[in-house]
Structures are given as C-alpha cells and as structure tokens.
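Trigger factor
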Amino acid sequence: MRQLDDFRGTWRIERVIRHADGMAARFEGRAVWTQHGADLAYEETGVMRLKGQATVSARQRYTWHPDLTVSFSDGRFFHTVPPDGGETSHVCDPDRYDGHYDFSNWPSFSVTWRVCGPRKDYVSRSTYSRVEG
C-alpha cells in the first residue's frame, strides 16, 4: 500500500503517447516530488519528441495531498491515486480520462491514461524509476 511519502524524491520518467490516428509522441525527463507543507509538490520537466517535428521542452505541475488526491497547479481536483494500484478517473467535460496505476514493480511504477472525447483519443503510458542519490 503506497503512502504519500513513498513518492518523495527524484524519478526518471518515460512517457509514450499513442493517438488513435497512429501518431505517437515520446516524453523523457524527470519528475520530482518535494515537501510543501503537508503536501508534496510535483513537477515534471523534460523533452517531448514527435516524429517529423522539432523537439520541445515540456513541464507540468501538480500537488499531491496526504490522502493521495492530486490537484492541478491551480488547485482544482484532478484524481485520486489508488494506494494499492488500480483504477482512477477524471472528467474534463467533454473528455474523459480513465487511469490505471501499477505498483507491482515498486520502486518503479507506471500510470496509464486512456483519454476519450470529441477532440481527444489517445493512450498515455508513463513509467517512473527512482533516481538514486
């Protein structure tokens, strides 16, 4: 069973995004969880590569709370991380995000999101590996 403190520190992140139309993108970088009061501030930074296009820098921020709820950087609720792994979801009308956390290879883990809606149709799979030191 995962707890908030399990995530504190620096992780390597690799993400593959596969769109229904066959387009694929790859993100590689770091995810860092740092103490911020009772919460952990999450920040990922890295580069996104799309075939045939220039590489771009990318960054995302969230707040992880002690009950494993996750908020967007503006404070809106995003989703809840299942402590034993498993399903979660988020509705961003009109799109739906169905997620799955897999902790079976801890201290590495993966998060898969299936995103569907009138403008979105893709699967994103992120793999996290703890950085030593």
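thats it. The mean pLDDT is 95. The two ends are 24 Å apart (CA to CA). bye
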